[in-house]
Specification:
By secondary structure, the protein is mostly beta strands. It is built from no helices and ten strands. The chain is 0% helix and 46% strand.
Length: 119
Amino acid sequence: QVQLVESGGGLVQAGGSLRLSCAASGSIFRSTVMGWYRQAPGKQRELVASATSGSITNYGDTVKGRFTISRDNSKNTLYLQMNSLKPNDTAIYYCNRVPSTTGNFWWAWGQGTQVTVSS
């Protein structure tokens, strides 16, 4: 089982930036499409960005142009650079694999990292 540990969250003013990191155990990370998810209070968890093993990226409309996902396969680490943060970006952020037709499941969720954006 892959273990995921997210870090880098915090409290920031609107317009500010944060960089999140996700450390994954196991080399399977390197061949897996990975994503950053977020869950705001009272809302469902949503996928905000994803990156293939070859770093082809995709973004949700609400973060496109502001967030950048990247990965270092040699370190089994996923990153999310968040710029121009808005109050509605406030959420707990998680990383995990992205389910597909060949593997429709998630690994066990980590504890996440809290991002709070003040207006």
